[in-house]
TrEMBL record:
PROSITE patterns: THUMP
Coiled coil regions, renumbered to chain: none
Keywords tagged on the record: Methyltransferase, RNA-binding, Transferase
THUMP domain segment(s): 46-157
Pfam families: RlmL_1st, THUMP, UPF0020
Organism expressing this protein natively: Winogradskyella litoriviva
Single GO molecular function: methyltransferase activity
Annotated GO biological process: methylation
InterPro entries for this protein: RlmKL-like_Mtase, RlmL_1st, SAM-dependent_MTases_sf, THUMP_dom
Cross-referenced Gene3D superfamilies: 3.30.2130.30, Vaccinia Virus protein VP39 (3.40.50.150)
Name assigned to this protein: Class I SAM-dependent RNA methyltransferase
Amino acid sequence: MDNNYKMLAKTLFGFEDILAKELTQLGAMQVEKGVRNVSFVGDKGFMYKANLGIRTAIKILKPIHSFRVTKEEDLYKNVKNMKWENYMKATGSLAVDATVHNSVFTHSLYTALKTKDAIVDRFRDLEGVRPDVDLRFPDLKINVHIDRQRCTISLDTSGESLHRRGYKSATNIAPINEVLAAGLIMMSGWDGQSDFMDPMCGSGTMLAEAAMIACNIPPNLMRKEFAFERWEDWDVDLFEKIEESLLKKTRDFHHKILGYDKSPSAVAKAKENVKNAHLDEFIHIQHEDFFKTQKSGHEKLHMVFNPPYGERLENLNVEEFYGNIGSTLKHGYPNTDAWLITSNLEALKFVGLRPSRKIKVFNAKLEARLVKYEMYEGSRKAKKNL
């Protein structure tokens, strides 16, 4: 049995609560929310499990050393004194990335370079050989975080950002990040107990993430590699056992997931991505202009979408476009909970409907809102009277 240790899951602004809930449900201990991160305790098996099964984490870091820095030499000296030979071979490769909030270290690239120098100098002094730098596929990926006078050195267990699930071979203009899509869908309360729709589905990210949530499929099964697979203590048998245990928890889904897009190329890309993810039995994608559609049937519909806005589509008449969203929902989609994300906060005024929820989130670096419109069967007044 492995010893437990502290880890840190990084996420997007506003997703800390969902991530903490995911980690707790997966079995993490001592779960504590930070800003854009959640710390927790687990063993090696749980580290594998978190990378495979968490939907709203961008990275899972394993802190291995922390110290005080007041000047440049503090960083170099402390990093060089660490026993890096316990983590990699002198003939191996490494990559370092850094985030800094400090008056001495103001440049993250310089901080990463200084850290790398200290590690390779240690190996050169000890063994006369130095590791190579490989930014794409290193044997060891190291994260440096300096906040004021505290420096934390972590091993990056994930490698490439966890939003790269592995199912997307085709994208369109400004595709939504998979972690963002999963978080928005979870925030919207989607539980797989009704039909789901993305009426402007682009390359199909919302659809794929909704299907995986509905069926409880681990989001990162399709990943080609995690960073920990190159570590000295990589345990393939344990990893396969964890994978198998997660797959046993998948569940049946008895509703429909529907995607529309008015661009034929987007429809083709979405179909390709959904097929790559082996989710095509759950998802139906059609070439349709949402503004010319209406809901079929009376069952409850759960809708989440990311409409285009000025930054993504030039020559978009924002007032008309968002007005059409409102009128299509109002006249064509009764008994629907419709959620949309936009960073064009002015545009929401043109929808002409009153949102019942507004949640602040970020889409990349753009401040955005996730808003909910509740469309009732008949009028709202009639609903209240009932």
